[in-house]
Write a structure and sequence with these properties.
The structure holds two protein chains of two kinds. Helices cover 0% and strands 74% of the residues of chain A. By secondary structure, chain A is an all-beta fold. Chain A has one domain. Chain A has a five-stranded antiparallel sheet, with no helix packed on it. Chain A has a three-stranded antiparallel sheet with strand order 2-3-4, with no helix packed on it. In chain A, a hairpin with a 2-residue loop joins β6 and β7. Chain A starts with a strand and ends in a 6-residue tail after the last strand. Chain B is α+β, with helices and mostly antiparallel strands. Chain B folds into three domains: 186 residues, Alpha-Beta Plaits; 59 residues, 5' to 3' exonuclease, C-terminal subdomain (DNA polymerase, domain 1, Orthogonal Bundle); 163 residues, Dna Ligase, domain 1, CATH 3.30.1490. In chain B, the strands form three sheets. In chain B, strands 5-6-1-7-8 form a five-stranded mixed sheet. In chain B, α4 crosses α5 and α12 crosses α13. The chains are: A mainly beta, B alpha+beta. The interface between A and B is medium-sized, with 17 and 19 residues.
Amino acid sequence: MLELLEPIDVWVLFTKTGIQPSVFFWKGRQIKVEKVNLVHTTHNGSTLDYHFSISSGGNFYRLGFDTNKLKWVLEAVDEDDPTY
Amino acid sequence: MRTILHIDFNSFFATVEQQANPRLRGKPIGVTGGDRMKRTVLGAASIEAKKFGVKTGMPPWEAKKLCPEIIFVNGDSDKYLETTKRFLNILKDYTPYVEVFSIDECFLEIKPSLRGPKARGNPLRLKDCFVVNTPRNDVVKIALDIKRRIRSEIGEWISCSIGISYNKLMAKLAGSLIKPDGLVVIANPEEAIKILNHIELDEICGIGRQIKKRLNNSGIFNFKQLRVVPLPALLASYKSYGQTLYNMARGLDYSEIIPFYEREEVKSIGHRHTLECDTSDVEHIKQVLLKLCELVARRLRAKNLVGKTVSCWYRNALNGNVHFTGDGMQVTILSTRDGLEIFQAAWKSFHQIWSGGKIRMIGVSISNLRPQNPETISLLPENKRQETIIAALDKINDKFGEFTLQRGILLDSTNIKRRPNPFLSDRRFKL
């Protein structure tokens, strides 16, 4: 598994149950979030970060959202045919 | 008769990792101690890895030997703690009598109370406690509902074993009988005796390897034999613990559920760290110890406590030995919550017990705690200045992260991250 902290663009859905990443863009690819498997939070000082563990096309990605800066990063990638 | 449920997540850390990353599901995985593979042990092994004999507490090299295909995953305590919180939010819907036994185990007590609607999905108020005279099959329905909600609200890969019985001891035993995803009822003491007669002494919570050995040395190898021993004889050999053994043999346990919202008094605060490599470098050991003392002091200040008994201990490098050796010492000082004062006491103790050889781990704790009273605050200008600096330092670190501001000597020190222990200690109240 590749661990990184790469800023990415994300399309997000604001649903009744909360914020949900829908599509993100990485290395020229548009990756659709098929399922959010787990969401957890961490605190860095007073900043709350959300971490979304998601699946797409049999691959795993973890997206991080900094609620202070309102920015998304790609934190982890585990793919069948890695392009990195 | 009481109705107690014991809920135990199956291979908790590993299951959570498999829930997060479906590519790990069905595969043998071992969760290691965070950011390092060396000098760490497995925090958890998945159900698949356990089939190869891989166990929690095993070093990775031994796990790899037993299961070459095992995948090691860095542990992430924030993930596990969050999962526990969500789990507790589910349990609170059924009863307020929820005891957090560890990060992955809970006891629930279903008590007869005022009849009222089941507060599904809403926080349960005490007066809304439900179900009068709960029949056994209703409790089984509750257990099945909990399992269903864990899967649908936390994750479909997450399973738990549930034991139902008339006390905590037997509920925990019931839960341990079928793993994973078990549901076992031990309805009464007669059923309990039948099951106790078929298990080993150390399969019950409260009898470990040492006690089992002592019992074996006395010619006691099972609960049937233990039941024959008169109470006075057990008290003579084991003091007050003899009563516990007497009760265990009969499936008896009178301990109460301690709800998670009843904050336990903190008795001590401590931290320890296993060094990246064995060392006898005095400056490096000093830095690590100071950092640990600062972490302890931060927690003291966060709880508005001071402490006066400082304990310091270390573990020697293995050097070809099979068993760890080490030493420890404690000293009482004036009540403090200052990291530097704690360090000065700990360092002095360390020097008195350390032979100068390479060490592998060092730890510090402070006990004899009490609340910080206004009367104990010093009026001396130099102490007030120190308090002001520390308060400002805490404020900055609270906002921007641990050790954002720190003592100069720690600038190039080892990164030490505070992790919750499996029994959650002082984090319990944060749930």
